[in-house]
Specification:
With about 260 residues, the chain is of the alpha/beta class. It has one domain: Rossmann fold, CATH 3.40.50. Strand 7, helix 9 and strand 8 form a beta-alpha-beta unit. Bound molecules: adenosine-5'-triphosphate and magnesium ion (MG). Adenosine-5'-triphosphate (ATP) binds next to helix 2 and helix 9.
C-alpha cells in the first residue's frame, strides 16, 4: 500500500483494514480501479474476516510453492490490475526486480485511460518497464477484453502471477499450458480452484512473504526447487484452508456460547 496518511487513529481496532479500504477508494478516485473494484475488495474483506486477517499455514505452503515456481520460470510475468496498483505497487516492483519478471497491465473493465493510469502509477514508483499499452496478441478461448495481451509478456510467459484474478482468464491461461499462480482471499472462487497455485491470503500480507521466501529459496538448486513445486497440491491446500476456516468458526460459536 502506498504510504499515505489517512485520518484513522492507529489505535482503531480495524486500523489496517480501514487503511486498505481508503487506499482502494483513492484508487477509484485516481482512476486506477473501476467502481466494481470496490465490490471485489469487499468480497476479499469478508473472506479475510473468516481467516482471522492473518496468513494461515496452508498459505505459507502455497507461498513456498509459488516462490519455487517463480524461481524456476524462464519468462515470469506479473499481471496487474487497478486494485493491485492501489494496494501493493511497491511490492510488485520489488518482486519483479527480484526474479526479473515483467509487469503487464490487464484489466477486466477496460479503458485506455485506466490502463495508462496504472502504468503511470508503477512507473512513478520506479518500475522500469510496464507492458500492456500496446497489446499485439490474445489469449485463446476468452471473449472479454482481458484476452488482449502482449506477445512479449503474458502470451510468452511460462509462469504468470495473477493476483485478484477473474476465474475465466485463470482458466484460459492454464489451458495455454502456463503455471498460473494467484493470490485470492476466497478459497471458493473459480480462480482459486483453477489455478496451479493459490495463495489464500490478503495481497498486502502475501506479497512481502513471497519476496522473503524467494530470497531464502534463491540458494536452492533447481532439483530442490522442482521438489517443492511438484509436491504442492492445490486442491489439497484449498481443502486444508477450508477446514481451518471451519474449525475457526466452530470454536468461535463455542466461545460465544451460541
Ligand atoms: P471468480 O471469477 O474467480 O469466481 P469472483 O468473480 O468471485 O471470482 P472477482 O471479482 O472476479 O471475484 O475477483 C476478486 C477476487 O479477489 C475475489 O475472490 C476476492 O476475494 C479477491 N480479493 C479482493 N481483495 C483482495 C485482497 N486484498 N487480497 C487477496 N484477494 C482479494
Ligand atoms: Mg469473477
Amino acid at each position: 500500500m502506498t504510504k499515505k496518511e489517512y485520518n484513522i487513529p492507529p489505535s482503531h481496532p480495524r486500523y489496517i483494514s480501514l487503511q486498505l479500504r481508503e487506499a482502494i477508494a483513492d484508487g477509484v478516485a485516481e482512476g486506477l480501479s473501476a467502481p466494481e473494484g470496490l465490490i471485489a475488495h469487499g468480497r476479499g474483506e469478508a473472506f479475510d474476516y473468516l481467516l482471522g486477517e492473518c496468513t494461515l499455514p496452508p498459505a505459507i505452503t502455497a507461498i513456498r510453492a509459488a516462490g519455487a515456481t517463480m524461481l524456476l520460470a524462464k519468462h515470469p510475468v506479473i499481471s496487474v490490475n487497478g486494485n493491485v496498483a492501489a494496494l501493493a505497487p511497491e511490492h510488485v516492483i520489488e518482486l519483479s526486480d527480484l526474479i526479473k519478471a515483467r509487469i503487464e497491465v490487464n484489466i477486466f473493465h477496460y479503458s485506455k485511460m485506466r490502463s495508462l493510469a496504472i502504468i503511470n502509477r508503477f512507473q512513478e514508483l520506479g518500475a522500469e518497464e510496464v507492458l500492456g499499452e500496446h497489446k499485439d496478441s490474445s489469449i485463446p478461448g476468452l471473449d472479454s477484453a482481458r484476452a488482449q495481451c502482449t506477445s512479449a509478456g503474458i502470451y510468452k510467459s511460462d509462469v504468470v502471477l495473477v493476483p485478484l484474478e477473474d476465474g475465466d482468464r485463470a482458466e484460459a491461461l492454464r489451458k495455454m499450458g502456463k503455471d498460473v499462480i494467484t493470490i485470492d482471499l476466497n478459497p471458493l472462487s473459480r480462480t482459486s480452484r483453477l489455478c496451479s497455485i493459490t495463495i489464500v491470503d490478503n495481497l498486502v500480507r502475501a506479497l512481502p512473504k513471497l519476496i522473503e521466501t524467494i530470497k531464502e529459496l534463491d540458494t536452492y538448486d533447481d532439483i530442490q526447487l522442482m521438489e517443492i513445486k511438484t509436491s504442492f497440491d492445490n486442491n489439497q491446500n484449498l481443502k486444508e484452508m477450508l477446514n481451518l476456516i471451519n474449525d475457526r468458526l466452530g470454536s468461535m460459536v463455542f466461545q460465544s456460547g451460541i
